[in-house]
Amino acid sequence: MSGIRQVFGDERLHTAFTLYPYAFNETPSAGSAQELRDSLPFHEGNHTLIVEEGGRTVATAAAIPAHQNLRGTVMPMAAVAWVATHPAARRQGHSRRLMRQLHSDMLDKGHWLAALYPFHPSFYERFGYIGLPLNRTASFPPEGLASLLGVTLPGEVVWQNIHDGFDVYRAFHRRLLSERHGFTLTPDYRAVRARDSADRWIATATVDGEVIGLLTYRVDGYGGCLRADELLYTNALGRALLLQFLAQHAYQVSQVVITVAPDEFPETWATSLTVRTATESAFPTSPPLMGRLLSIDALRGARCGPGRVEIELVEDELLAGRYLLDGTGGTIAVSTTRGGAETATLTAAGLSGLAYGVLDPIDVVARGLGEISAGAARELRALLPPRTPHAFGKG
Ligand SMILES: CC(C)(COP(=O)(O)OP(=O)(O)OC[C@H]1O[C@@H](n2cnc3c(N)ncnc32)[C@H](O)[C@@H]1OP(=O)(O)O)[C@@H](O)C(=O)NCCC(=O)NCCS
């Protein structure tokens, strides 16, 4: 059987990277060798694995050491990416073996969560992943927000090139990581791509010197479109200031297109705003993020409701075992104590769905991801109430 090994630094160029252009880009392309070389620094801290046969790389997978907030606790998360197999070596189990190795390596390095954008979700569901809600795209003419301009709010919005505002941008992302369930922060060596490409404006809403809202965006031409990334804010004032800022672009651009969280309602931003809010889940072009727990420790100490349940985790080599989850103290205590509690059997994907707050126990059963009695469902619902993860922060 062919071996798996980790590659580092420039070695990636003639190993893992040989598979990237064909798998992920428009090919053939004259510039791709140079583009790959230029991208090396952005892979520096990645955990990159390859499968070799006869000295040639036939498959690869990598993980970016990121962080994610799960129910209020920030922890290391492995962002799995660049899973690719040479066309002649596909369907021989290479990706399957690479994923197993990647999980175990990243867990050894202290990553309790993993996330990825799937090409084929059922493959990853068998690996313990569950789909998270997709962000929405809101499109509207900026004059639809004109009514917001008549009011003077405390605070101000300033804008600058992201190259100059990069430190503010990173600091705000770090703050949201600590506050928002599901929020993801990539490591510095990847985040600097935003600064180096310098192809964005950054608008920051501040009050008393504190940043409370942030928006990165581009204007694609006079009368064209203002294309904004994620609408990020810590409170309603931050959002209102940024919406006022967008309103100021009336008749400069004809459309604003902006990414918003799954539980944002743009139709409530202003009276009679004409807005289209949409999302599309499609594979492999527009996949929702999937996430999983690599360790039960991810739940230890999480804020929770007053439930108490014994779970048996099955069909997963990392999580397999029996655990008592006790939330009667306000945070989850995990132990291997037996007896005296309602019991449920869960797959890793079932547990992950409950932990991220995107599945009700009934959904877990309906999707074949576990067996849960009515009593255990009641306890799980109290312990892990529904949450909407804000899976912002692409790598
Ligand atoms: C997707 C890809 C990485 C799979 O690699 P692979 O080494 O062939 O995968 P494996 O042989 O380990 O297959 C694992 C399982 O994935 C699923 N799978 C793999 N390729 C599939 C395909 N084309 N269609 C449907 N399912 C597929 C199957 O469930 C398969 O198990 P099975 O063969 O027992 O049915 C490879 O086809 C590839 O490089 N594609 C282009 C890039 C890409 O899409 N990467 C994934 C990004 S998340």
Provide an overview of this structure:
Residues 2-154 form the N-acetyltransferase domain. One of its GO terms (molecular function) is aminoglycoside N-acetyltransferase activity. InterPro entries: Acetyltransf_17 (IPR041380), Acetyltransferase_Eis (IPR051554), Acyl_CoA_acyltransferase (IPR016181), GNAT_dom (IPR000182). The protein has 395 residues and is of the alpha+beta class. The protein folds into three domains: 4-116, 3-Layer(aba) Sandwich (Aminopeptidase), CATH 3.40.630; 136-278, Gcn5-related N-acetyltransferase (GNAT) (Aminopeptidase), CATH 3.40.630; 294-383, 2-Layer Sandwich (Nonspecific Lipid-transfer Protein, Chain A). The protein contains ten helices and 21 strands. It has helices at 20-24, 32-39, 94-108, 121-126, 162-179, 188-197, 236-247, 348-355, 361-366, 374-383; strands at residues 4-7, 47-53, 56-70, 73-85, 113-116, 130-131, 136-140, 156-161, 184-185, 201-207, 210-219, 225-230, 232-233, 255-260, 276-278, 290-293, 308-314, 321-326, 333-335, 342-347, 370-372. The strands form three sheets. Strands 1, 2, 3, 4, 5, 6, 9 and 16 form an eight-stranded mixed β-sheet that branches. A hairpin with a 6-residue loop joins strand 18 and strand 19 (333-335). Helix 5 runs antiparallel to helix 6. It is globular, with a radius of gyration of 23 Å. The chain starts with a strand and ends in a 12-residue tail after the last helix. It binds coenzyme A.
